[in-house]
Design a protein that fits this description.
about 90 residues; 2 helices; about 20% helix; alpha+beta; single chain
Length: about 90
């Protein structure tokens, strides 16, 4: 089993908005079975209103992800941490 942890800093580039495509490429390149992610977002403007947990799940292949909010910004989205696992989380 291969495990990894990654602080993605919202998948932001040095300037501007997030690159969810580059984030997905990075997740795929890690080839991890278990991935812990910090500073991941759901429905935030700076990450193009994407569900980055779902992006990670799709990049890992058949995977399940769980998200825990660190900040809930209401209609502006949320950021927090996630655990993504190939297969399902029991």
């Amino acid at each position: 089993m291969r495990a990894a942890t990654w602080n993605i800093q919202h998948a932001r580039q040095r300037r501007g908005f997030a690159s969810n495509a580059r984030f997905a490429q990075g997740v795929s390149a890690l080839n991890a079975d278990v991935l812990g992610v910090q500073e991941i977002e759901q429905n935030m403007v700076r990450s193009w209103m994407a569900d980055q947990v779902q992006i990670a799940c799709e990049a890992m292949g058949p995977a399940t992800g769980v998200f825990a909010k660190a900040r809930d910004l209401g209609i502006a989205g949320a950021d927090g941490v996630a655990l993504v696992v190939r297969g399902e989380i029991l």
